[in-house]
Amino acid sequence: MNEVFPGVLRDEAGLLTKNLVPGTRVYGEKLLDIDGSEYRTWNPYRSKLASAVMSGLASFPFGRDTRVLYLGSATGTTVSHISDLAVDGVVACVEFAPRSMRDFLAVSRARRNVVPILGDAKAPLDYAPFVGTVDVVYQDVAQSEQADILVRNLPFLRKGGHVMLCIKARSIDVTKDPEEVFRRERAVLAPFIDITEVIDIGAYEKDHSFVVGVKR
Q: How confident is the model at residue 172, as a pLDDT?
C-alpha cells in the first residue's frame, strides 16, 4: 500500500480514497478498513480521473481545501472521490440531465462539500451565483463543443488554477480520426491555458483523451 497522491492510496488491487461518509457506498464500490479508517475502492473503468491516475497522471491539484467546479457530474461517481479528498473545500457540480441529477442528489445530500446545480455548462452565467472562484475546473461532458465549453467557464478559475478536460472524440465528430479531434480541441484551449499533460486513457475509455493545463 502506498500513497500516490495526498489522500489517494494504491495497492495491488487499484486505487482507494478515504470515505468522507463512512458506511456509505456511491456506486457499489468496496469499503475497506485500513488502520482504523474506512476507504473506498476507486474504479478506473467508472471514473476517468481514476483512469488518468492509473495511466500515469502527474498533476493532481486536489487537496483538503480545494474549490472545484465540476462540469458534467452525471450520477456522481468521480465527484464522490473528489469529495473524499476536498474535505474542507467545495465541489460545485453542474449537470444538465434531470434524470442524472435525481440520482446525484442522493450522493450530494450525504456530502457536506458537494453543491448540486441543475444547469447547462454552455451557459455559465446562469449558475455563476452558486460557484465563485475555484482552484480547479474539471469537465466531463458528452457534447460536441467540449473545449469551447471549458473556455466559457474559465472566468471562474483563478489565475494559475488547473483545468482537467476529458475529451470524448466520438461525442464531437464520429467521422474524424480521434487524434485529429484531440488536436483540434487542444488548439481551442491553447490561447487560454498552458497544457501540461495529455494522457491517453484508451485502456479504460476508448477514444478518450485526458488533458491537464494551467490557466495563464
A: 87
Strand partners, 154: none
pTM, two decimal places: 0.95
Which amino acid is residue 191, in one-letter code? P
Domain at 45-215, CATH from 1.20.1250.20, 2.60.120.1440, 3.40.50.150, 3.30.1330.10 = 3.40.50.150
3-state SS of 145-188? CHHHHHHHHHHHEEEEEEEEEEEEHHHHCCCCCHHHHHHHHHHH
98-117 pLDDT per residue, tens: 999 999 999 999 999 999 99
Half-sphere exposure of 127 (CA within 13 A, CB side): 23
